[in-house]
Design goal:
Shape: elongated
Radius of gyration: 18 Å
Strand order of the largest sheet: 1-2
Structural class: mainly alpha
Strand content: under 5%
Order of helices and strands: EEHHHH
Number of domains: 1
Helix content: over 70%
Length: 156
């Protein structure tokens, strides 16, 4: 996969490197501060979807780049294994983030009261925010480790 003669992977990874930490932080803010859930619910969900898509696009374009240049296989072995792990972690991240968006309630900051929600499953009110934070932190560590391995493969 190329654009104008350039491999698509180096272009796509920038979206993953930007949107994944941004999504993780947005989802953490959503989970930790119930008072602002009315304001952060949809940005967290949209950023989680974009991050998921960008990581998977990076994985697909990276595999395409490797297929076109098989001599790179040994050089990017660590990066490739970490990228596969990150792409699988992103499935868990997306599921947990969307579960939080669907389930967790909170008050509203609007005088009209619009935007306030009750939790759909009350028993998840204490557990789900903790799970969201833990998964988000693991994803943050994963994107840093994957990016580090990729940059070491390219720059030495």
């Amino acid at each position: 996969m190329e654009i104008g003669g350039l491999p698509l992977h180096p272009l796509v990874i920038h979206a993953a490197v930007v949107f994944t930490p941004l999504a993780a932080m947005a989802v953490i803010v959503f989970a930790v501060w119930p008072r602002y859930r009315w304001l952060t619910r949809w940005p967290a969900a949209i950023l989680a979807l974009i991050a998921f898509g960008s990581v998977w696009a990076a994985r697909i374009t990276g595999q395409s780049m490797l297929n076109a240049n098989p001599e790179l296989a040994q050089l990017v072995e660590t990066h490739m294994s970490r990228g596969k792990m990150l792409s699988l972690l992103m499935i868990l991240f997306l599921v947990v983030a969307l579960a939080g968006v669907w389930d967790l309630g909170g008050p509203t900051g609007l005088a009209s009261g619009r935007g306030a929600r009750e939790s759909r499953v009350a028993s998840l009110d204490k557990v789900l925010p903790v799970v969201i934070v833990l998964v988000s932190l693991v994803v943050l560590a994963g994107v840093v480790a994957t990016g580090d391995a990729g940059s070491r493969a390219v720059w030495g």
